[in-house]
Amino acid sequence: MTTNRRVAVMSPQTRLAHARRRHRGRWRPATLDPVDAPTAAALYHRQRARAIASLGLLFALLLGLPLLLSVLPSLDDVRLLGVPASWLALVVVPFPAMVLLAFRHLRRAEHVEDASGEDPA
Amino acid sequence: MIAAFAVAPVVLVTLLIGLRGVAAMRTTSDFLVASRRVSPLLNSAAVSGEYLSAASFLGVAGLVVKDGVGSLWYPVGFTAGYIAMLTLVAAPMRRSGALTVPDFAEARLASPSLRRLAAVVVLVISGLYLVPQFRTAGLVLSVVGGTPYWVGVVLAGVAVSATLALGGMRAATYVQAFQFVFKLLLFIIPAIWLLLEVGPTVREQAVHPVEFTEFERDTSVVFRVGATLDVPPGAAEIAPDGTRTALPPGEWQVPAGRTVVFPEGSPAPELRGETAPGAAGWERPLLDLRHEGYPLLSTWAVLIATMLGTMGLPHVIMRFHTSPDGRAARRTAAFTVALLSVFYLFPGIYGALGRVLVPHLYLSGATDSAVVALPAQVDTGATGTLFTGLLTAGAFAAFLATSLGLVLVVSGAISHDLVPGGLRQLRVAVVVAAAVVVLLALPAARLDAGTLVTWGFTVAASTFCPLLVLGIWWPRLTATGAIAGVTNGLLGSSGAFLVSLLDPPVDGWLAVLLVQPAPWSVPLAFVTMVGVSLFGRPPPWSTAAMLRLHLHENRSSLIADRAAVARDLGHSSWSARRSSAVRRITRRLVR
Questions:
Q1: A3 in a domain, yes or no?
Q2: How far is residue B405's CA from residue B579's CA, in Å, rounded to a whole number?
Q3: Which residue of B547, B561, B572, B586 is the best one to mutate when testing the A interface, meaning the one whose CB has the most A CBs within 10 A?
Q4: CA dihedral B218, B222, B227, B232 (to 10 degrees)
Q5: φ and ψ at B189, to 5 degrees?
Q6: Shortest Cα–Cα distance, B159 to chain A (Å)
Q7: pLDDT at position A55, please?
Q8: What's residue B590's pLDDT?
């Protein structure tokens, strides 16, 4: 059998590295440099506070709106442009509110990081 | 014919884009996370494109027709999931540097058994999510084009596996982003056309729901699956030879495969165990699972399952790993909320119109096809056919995009997490996974797609959601605790679904919690994780491993000024990174 196989040209080191079985053992992400540890801890605390605030608002919206609709069945009879207000409340209220909430949280979370980048605590 | 014209372009464009992604595909990272070079806007379009599955494109409108306006809570929960993702998961998850969820679990907790468990959970969730996608592909093609069921399933399998095996995540990214725009247009334009075309009478009827009790025109109902109907006195059908024959009142077992033509003015039979579209309670803006009379509990349960489930869906999390850094991952999540919100303004329109125009679909359990059935009811000419074609193309794009992401995750779980593998094994795994799903989907035509997808969401909510949230925010989590919590969540949620399939004699709020176990299975998983972890001792480096996830990339303290910072760690820069030094400092910082 003629052996005109095409062979990739590479340095001896690369060839060795490719020939070796890939090492797959315990893998851990990059460790924390102690210099960065205070920054990381400060970021963790601030981001946690902001995350809890945003999640609180989200849960208030998602659990509160069904509650409101169930205690106020009269909203079914109120009509805006012919559509029952309670139907509109499922579409027109939650989606814009969630978009606002998402961008508010994004801005606050990025602000925390920007502030800590300029002034390492 | 319509089906061919609608679906062929979608499949071809998918394959073409897939071919473009072939270039420069050398490593596992290229294949699984597109070399992490995807900008936030492109990525959020891809996330949305992947996320808007058949369940969103067809399912929500179908549920509105069948169960009522309250079904519009599903999309709210789907979207809210991305806010939870944004606040809790996106950025730290990306900063872990993992390629898959099992990778992350091992990175944070250094436990190979947890990695394997997580890979199995990925397979369970993806399987529960994939089979309905392929099934819907088969059903929609057979409804619109009259092809046998298997044609659509096999077509979807071939398109997905070819695109992925060739182009991996890069191809999937471009395909999904393209298909998001495609789906958005193909959903919004027909919705507006329908609203304008139906006329004021139908629009008036759409907002004043009345119960579906009689056929307003000659209606043909195809029973793909057998059904038990309660026939009221006076109902009739039109025999194939055109004569009108009265149906005997009482119970009627319709065999699978039967087509019944009901004449105009005939009273409508009722499906055993279901209420007709528009019946009392249909117009209530709350979900009432199984009509048990606990609408508030049902709505909350569904919201919790969909919201927290989204956070744990492995194919969605995988997409966040394609961002270049944590900040981009966070932006991706925020943009996704906006993109999804635009799309989800419209399913309600299809649902409300579907209740007026195609309520008979509920008799054969085919409300899923309400969206594609609507244009033909409004316009029987070429325009109606055109819009049916457009919506079919959109629906096909919907399950192609979702299946792409899921098959990629499955192949990653098998060939990256369970057994070591390189690029070639990943490509083989893609083809094998697609083939297995096609085989699973072939006998699944009569399964309820909604049940499977809800099951997948609930499993994700009760396994990966606590694992990610506690892994990212709680330094004391141990590997044992994580394994116990994930196992408990998996068994609890899946067990409840398996029990509910047996139809046990429970009712009231217990039945609601059995059909939708998220309100107890998610807290159960959290409590198990916390409880078991508190009994054990976290490894000494665990606080440092957790804090590392919160450190952002664009900090100014790079090597240059790192030297300037006074430190008490001796002279060698290497000793500064010794784990004991990190441990000492972090212990002081996080109490």
A1: no
A2: 37
A3: B547
A4: 10
A5: -65, -50
A6: 31
A7: 93
A8: 63
Of B408, B347, B346, B344, the C-alpha closest to B176 is B408
Question: In 3D, which of A84, A91, A83 has the Cα closest to residue A65?
Answer: A91
B419 touches chain A (CB under 8 A): no
Per-residue model confidence as pLDDT tens digits over B264-316: 777 778 777 777 777 777 878 888 776 777 888 888 988 999 999 998 888 88
Q: Give the C-alpha distances (Å, rounded to integers) separating B576 from B540, B567, B584, B587.
A: 17, 9, 11, 15
- Tokens linked to B149: 């069921």
Query: Given the DSSP bridges, would you call strands B227-231 and B250-254 parallel, antiparallel or unpaired?
Result: antiparallel
Find residues 37-66 of chain A whose CB sits inside 8 Å of chain B.
37-41, 43-44, 47-48, 50-51, 54-55, 58, 62-63, 66
Six-digit token pair at B441? 């989907």
Query: CA nearest B323: which of B11, B5, B7, B46?
Result: B46
Q: What is the pLDDT of residue B109?
A: 86
Where does residue A18 rank: exposed (0-12), middle (13-18), buried (19+ CB within 10 A)? exposed
- Which residues share a beta bridge with B219? B262
Q: What is the pLDDT of residues B91-116, one digit of tens each?
A: 888 888 777 888 888 888 888 889 88
B29 touches chain A (CB under 8 A): no
pLDDT at B484 over 90: yes
Is A96 a domain residue? yes
Q: pLDDT digits over B136-159, tens only?
A: 888 777 777 777 878 888 888 888
Number of domains forming the structure of chain A: 1
For the segment B435-450, the average pLDDT, to the nearest whole number, is 77
* A23 domain-assigned: no
Residue A52 structural domain: 35-118
Q: Are strands B258-262 and B244-246 parallel, antiparallel or unpaired?
A: unpaired
Q: Where are the domains of chain B?
A: 2-199+310-445, 219-271
Which is more confidently placed, B367 or B181?
Answer: B181
At B557, the pLDDT band (50, 70, 90 cuts) reads very low
Asked if pLDDT for residue B575 goes beyond 50, the answer is no
Separation CA B389–CA B226 (nearest Å): 28
Strand partners of residue B223:
B258
Of B485, B526, B441, which Cα lies nearest the Cα of B149? B441
The parts of chain A modelled with pLDDT lower than 70 are 1-3, 19-31, 117-121
The Cα of B561 is separated from the nearest Cα of chain A by a number of Å equal to 10
Tell me which H or E stretch contains B430: helix B423-441
Nearest CA to CA, how far is A107 from chain B (Å)?
Answer: 10
Q: Which two tokens stand for residue B446?
A: 């009569």
User: Which B residues 75-94 touch A at CB under 8 Å?
Assistant: 76-77, 79-80, 82-84, 86-88, 91
Report pLDDT for B491.
93
Report pLDDT for B218: 78
Task: For residue B232, give every residue at least 6 positions away whose Cβ sits within 8 Å of its Cβ, in sequence order, or none.
Answer: B249, B267, B268, B269, B270
What is the CATH number that goes with domain B2-199+310-445? 1.20.1730.10
- Sheet-wide strand order for B227-231: B250-254, B227-231, B270-271
Tokens for B409, please give them: 């995750």
